[in-house]
From TrEMBL, chains A, B:
Name of the protein in its database record: Thiamine-monophosphate kinase
Misc. remarks from the entry: Reaction mechanism of ThiL seems to utilize a direct, inline transfer of the gamma-phosphate of ATP to TMP rather than a phosphorylated enzyme intermediate.
Family the entry assigns: Belongs to the thiamine-monophosphate kinase family.
Domain (PurM-like N-terminal): residue spans on this chain: 37-147
SUPFAM superfamilies: PurM C-terminal domain-like, PurM N-terminal domain-like
Source organism per UniProt: Mycolicibacterium agri
UniProt pathway annotation: Cofactor biosynthesis; thiamine diphosphate biosynthesis; thiamine diphosphate from thiamine phosphate: step 1/1
Length: 319, 319
């Protein structure tokens, strides 16, 4: 190779040339009036409101580059942010991404990260409209997502009412199972290990829940019981969940749990990062949603089969 | 003290309790329909568009905690993002902030960071509407800002036309001078050292420039010549700057330059991070803007007193 190897690192290629590669050849959605390349982007906000949320992923804490390909990291970063918008009953429309990485990072890896982001955002017609590229001791990816309620009222965590049905859509426990398998070097159950690297939120179901009369909603990022606890706290209600209604989730993980000597219920009830949606409905949940419990009188608490859950209390950032 | 000292760290207080402290007692602006505490925030976008930009600041790279108080870091992070919105001719309305920090970080320092952010955002009536708090090996702060064009057309970098007047508002070279003083341990010129820690963008002047017919605009984040280069490239024009028109900026730094054995012109023409605004106008610039040059025929280039600038080419992330 005649080329200097350093030319293929972020430092060798240079910030502005890397950015040119990152934003080149991308087709922005119609909602984007001004895309990357100026001081800021301009995005349509059709109903006069913007829904906004942000998440930061730190290498070694939220992902490992010996487990995840850069594309996987990009897909995960977009998916988990998009799920926050879904959980409001809105549709994600645009993302901005700040990426910190060491100077010796390969420019190809940075491009692959961006490719994964565009691939995931493309699943619901959104684009990456802007970003920042900086030097950092390890990879740090900070994504902010904008969403469109299209005239709907936002579905908050605080709207659950006594007697509502609790329902879920999307997978539970897969990411936690996958993490356990990766962490313990169990080289099987590829689909579960894959789900830990790239979650699959039920895109479009947040909007469906809002249209279907959801009274409260959140996405399962910390763990089902922990996230239902957020709804219980915000709404001032109790929530009762039935394991019988979650048998299918448990059964999907039982082989892996047996092979790994773990408890599948811990994954189903305590595992986060699948970004399923959980909501409460005064009537019947929309098609595809699985009823798993009911809303009780206060005080705020979450009961499993009538009892306090004593397993994993969910993800904590500084634990 | 009877309290366990560890209780005052992020790990001791815990993620959710820290977030409660961070968002408690804050008054959100009227544009914020849903504030912190749910999966996402909802912000008014009055004219059906949202302006959005993001910047990441990494400890040791963009700030040093032995130079800056946490409040200063918060103010800087908000100021530099707000300047990107000003540079489009818009007004910053809302911010989301992702904050990564070691578990042993003091909760008081995290609160002081947030206080600085609220203080700076309050200067133009904006609020922090959401965020993320995660564990990281060093402080990483990623800010995304939303802005409101209030019906105006965004002022892009690409609109400069031959014969336009180039004008600037806000300070030049102060942050670079301050950095040089800090870096060389020169314990004088407090105001310049202060300006390096907390820039003072000319809030409101981006909107004034748009209303005053600005044909192109950017903020001085990389350095005057480098940022004018971005306008020259995007507009396909040359830009000529006169040092005579910048004499006041030079003179304000000459004592510090003499004491430090440095070149004040390097700071004025090459120093970034003051977040002044520079724009082009087909007519007279608005009140408070200083004419500093003219727009020439292409090719894209920036001339200083008719010649190529051979000094500091501006900030590069991986240099």
């Amino acid at each position: 190779m005649a080329n200097d190897e350093s030319a293929e690192t972020l430092a060798g290629v240079g910030e502005f040339a890397v950015i040119d590669r990152l934003v080149g050849q991308r087709t922005q959605p119609a909602a984007v009036t001004v895309g990357p390349g100026d001081d800021a982007a301009v995005v349509a906000a059709g109903d006069g409101r913007t829904v906004v949320s942000t998440d930061m992923l730190v290498e070694g804490r939220h992902f490992r580059l010996d487990w995840s390909a850069p594309e996987d990291v990009g897909r995960k970063a977009i998916a988990q942010n998009a799920a926050d918008i879904e959980a409001m009953g809105a549709t994600p429309t645009a993302f901005v991404v700040a990426f910190g990485a060491p100077a010796e990072t390969s420019a190809d890896d940075a491009l692959a990260l961006a490719d994964g982001m565009w691939q995931e955002a493309g699943r619901f017609g959104a684009g990456i409209v802007g970003g920042d590229l900086v030097s950092a001791p390890q990879w740090v990816i900070s994504v902010t997502v904008l969403g469109d309620l299209a005239g709907r009222s936002p579905v908050l965590r605080s709207g659950a009412r006594v007697g509502d049905t609790v329902a879920v859509v999307g997978s539970l426990g897969r990411s936690a199972a996958g993490y356990f398998l990766w962490h313990n070097g169990i080289d099987a159950f590829d689909e579960l290990r894959r789900r830990h690297l790239v979650p699959e939120p039920p895109y479009g179901q947040g909007r469906a829940a809002a249209d279907g009369g959801a009274t409260s909603m959140t996405d399962v990022s910390d763990g089902l019981i922990a996230d239902l606890g957020h709804i219980a706290d915000a709404s001032g209600v109790g929530i009762s969940v039935s394991t019988a209604a979650l048998a299918a989730d448990h059964d999907a993980l039982s082989d892996a749990a047996a092979a790994a000597g773990a408890d599948a219920w811990g994954w189903v009830l305590g595992g986060g990062e699948d970004h399923a949606l959980v909501a409460t409905f005064s009537g019947a949940p929309p098609a595809g949603w699985r009823p798993i419990g009911t809303v009780l009188d206060g005080p705020p608490r979450v009961l499993v089969d009538g009892d306090t859950w004593r397993g994993n209390a969910g993800w904590q950032s500084f634990a």
